[in-house]
Amino acid sequence: MKFDKAKRAASLDLATDRDVARARTVVGRIMKEQDAKVLMQTRFVTAVSEIARNAVRHGGGGTMEVYLLPGGRIGVECRDEGPGIADVEAALTDGFSTINSMGRGLGGAKRLSELFIIETMPNEGTTIRMTSRLRGGR
Amino acid sequence: MKSAAIYPVEGVLLVSIQDDITDTDILDLQDELSTKISEMDAEGVVIDISALDIVDTFVGRVLAQLTAIARLLDAETFVVGMRPAVAMTLVELGMYLPENRTALNLTHALSKMRDTASE
């Protein structure tokens, strides 16, 4: 899954926790403009917050692109050039944490999104793409 | 600009959290609140999250920690103003906040606190 043909709605740098807050605000505003349902918006913005924080804390910062997808969907691509995730399956398990954070973040983001794809390579970084419907269903 | 403010109201500390709060701000809040509870000998803490569009795992964890810290300092914590969509999302994340007492708003929290105190 790539978002090549989708319409890009925003592009953000993720360097500090202020940028994480901004990512939440921007994605929330875009979904609101698209008349998204409140629950879909709450779930997806929560997922965005988790992956943006991961990019800042674990990935040494990164970028986030927001796309409007066909079929009433929104997509987010979050890219960092950090150390990568050694064991993706473990990282998606509730309770797993490498730096004493709570360890529900990545698994939570996966659960709250419709599609959730991680590409990661040791020492090259991590890219997460995830989507949500704007209205109804998952 | 501060993204959280603490006000003393009738022996209770009312904490209002703004929507754009960062992880750093919320950790600062945790420090400041712990100090104020002790200084003021507050009997309770009411954390108003009605301005928050979302509560993610980090904020959820800090709310749980604030409650635990307040309890050790002999103050009871209520979380008020949680939006329905936030509650649904937290449950999906497996974050049930079992330590937090919740109330719909400040008035309800204060009256629940008085009820507990008079028991």
Automatic annotation (TrEMBL), chain A:
Coiled coil: none annotated. Keywords: ATP-binding, Nucleotide-binding. GO terms for molecular function: ATP binding. It comes from the Bacteria. Residues 15-131 form the Histidine kinase/HSP90-like ATPase domain. Pfam families: HATPase_c_2. SUPFAM superfamilies: ATPase domain of HSP90 chaperone/DNA topoisomerase II/histidine kinase. This is ATP-binding protein. It comes from Pacificimonas flava. The lineage of its organism: Bacteria, Pseudomonadati, Pseudomonadota, Alphaproteobacteria, Sphingomonadales.
UniProtKB/TrEMBL annotation, chain B:
Residues 2-113 form the STAS domain. InterPro entries: Bact_StressResp_Reg (IPR051932), STAS_dom (IPR002645), STAS_dom_sf (IPR036513). It holds the Pfam family STAS. It comes from the Bacteria. PROSITE patterns: STAS. PANTHER family: RSBT ANTAGONIST PROTEIN RSBS (PTHR33745:SF1), RSBT ANTAGONIST PROTEIN RSBS-RELATED (PTHR33745). This is UDP-glucose 6-dehydrogenase. It comes from Pacificimonas flava. The lineage of its organism: Bacteria, Pseudomonadati, Pseudomonadota, Alphaproteobacteria, Sphingomonadales.
